[in-house]
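Suppose you are handed a protein chain with no further information: no name, no annotation, nothing but its sequence. What can you learn? This example shows the usual starting point.
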Amino acid sequence: MKHLYGKLVAQSAEHPADFVISEAGMSSVGRTLLGESGRAAQGLAVLELAVERSPGSYQAREALAAGCEKLGDMERARKEYREALRLSPQLAKLSAKKLEESPQ
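A reasonable first move is to predict its three-dimensional structure. Written in C-alpha cells, the prediction is:
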C-alpha cells in the first residue's frame, strides 16, 4: 500500500491536475475500508498514510486513533488521541472526550 501511495505522489508531482490526494479524502477512504468486511488492515494503512501526509493534522490523528480503537489497539489509540489533543487543544474535542473516558 505504501509503495502504491509513493508512486501516486510521484505521478501527482508530474501531473498535479490529474491527482488530488487530500488528507480528508484519505481519511474518508480509510474509514470506509475499516467498515468493510476483511478490509480493516487496508483501512488502517490508509489512515496511517493520511497521518504521514499531514503529521500536523489533529483530524488525521483522530481518524487514525478511531481506527486503532475499532481494531482493539487501545494503547495506540490513546497515543494518537493524545497527539491530536497536543496539536490542537481547542479543536480536538473527540480526543479530549476519549481520553477522559479512558485516561490510562
